[in-house]
Design a protein that fits this description.
The structure is a single chain. With about 250 residues, this protein is α/β, with parallel strands linked by helices. Helix content is about 30%, strand content about 15%. It contains seven helices and nine strands, in the order βαβββαβαβαβαββαα. The strands form three sheets. It has a five-stranded parallel beta sheet. The chain has a two-stranded antiparallel sheet with strand order 3-4. The structure holds 6-chloroguanine. The site of 6-chloroguanine has 12 residues, from β5.
């Protein structure tokens, strides 16, 4: 997969050289190309922003510079264009999976109060454009959001994760774990500071272990994210498990 990023802080993306993403790039699975937006600014100060029409605080990024940069980066091609903004649609695991199936993404993170909106009108008509938010809080710029999205997408690309099936069990993964948080995990030793590993995990009984993990995922989701649970999507065994949590004194959302 090719990923282009146009930013006034390309050095912000140094973490892409590390760990999972560094290895994916070294293997050629991920081809990340960073571009300095200021290279398309032609005045002596390399100005990329200006005061907002209508007044108000902050600065707005100039459309001509973004237009020239995007035109040069895409050439005759048509990547999916992703513009991070707190006013965008939520970035979710389902969106990460969609992006992982694309051959080419172009991220355009803004600083200041954002990019002149005509840039989104222009490229929204020419490319598939998504304005996306990574959560309900405000960052100083879109760069950190781009790092988050690239990491979420990169780990889904074939050949990136060590264990080929590990993404299937993720919290929020489509299928059995859709709308569920992953439960607790344990490794050796079997007793640590008096805390024991749940006995079922040592039993070797795969059916019981799968049921226990499912119950713990349901229990954790009900405690921490009750709004995620849609009773209609649960099996009779799941519904029985939820009823039994009530007896344990666990909160059970309605
Ligand atoms: Cl994508 N950008 C910025 N600047 N702030 C955010 C965000 C994005 N998502 C949440 N907050």
């Amino acid at each position: 997969m090719r990923i282009d990023v146009i930013s006034i802080f390309p050095e912000y993306f140094a973490p892409l050289d590390v760990s999972l993403m560094g290895k994916a790039r070294a293997k050629g699975i991920l081809d990340v190309r960073l571009h300095q937006l200021r290279e398309w600014a032609h005045d002596v100060h390399k100005t990329v922003d200006d005061t907002p029409y209508g007044g108000g605080p902050g600065m707005v990024m100039k459309p001509e510079i973004w237009g020239a940069a995007i035109d040069d980066v895409i050439g005759e091609g048509s990547p999916r264009l992703v513009v991070p903004t707190p006013s965008g649609r939520p970035f979710t695991q389902a969106v990460a999976l969609e992006y992982a199936a694309e051959p080419w993404l172009l991220f355009a993170p803004a600083r200041y109060e954002g990019i002149d909106s005509r840039v989104m009108i222009e490229y929204g008509a020419r490319l598939r454009l998504d304005e996306v938010s990574i959560g309900d809080y405000v960052l100083a710029g879109g760069e950190a959001a781009v790092l988050v999205m690239i990491e979420a997408v990169a780990r889904l690309l074939p050949g990136v994760l060590g264990n080929a099936v590990s993404a299937v069990d993720d919290s929020f993964a489509p299928g059995a774990m859709e709308n569920l948080l992953e439960g607790p995990v344990f490794t050796k030793p079997p007793v640590w500071r008096g805390h024991e590993v749940p006995e079922v995990l040592l039993s070797g009984h795969h059916g019981k272990i799968a049921r226990w993990r499912r119950d713990e995922a349901l229990r954790r989701t009900l405690r921490k994210r009750p709004e995620l649970i849609e009773r209609g999507e649960l099996s009779p065994a799941d519904l029985r498990a939820i009823e039994s949590f009530r007896a344990d004194g666990d909160p059970v959302a309605d």
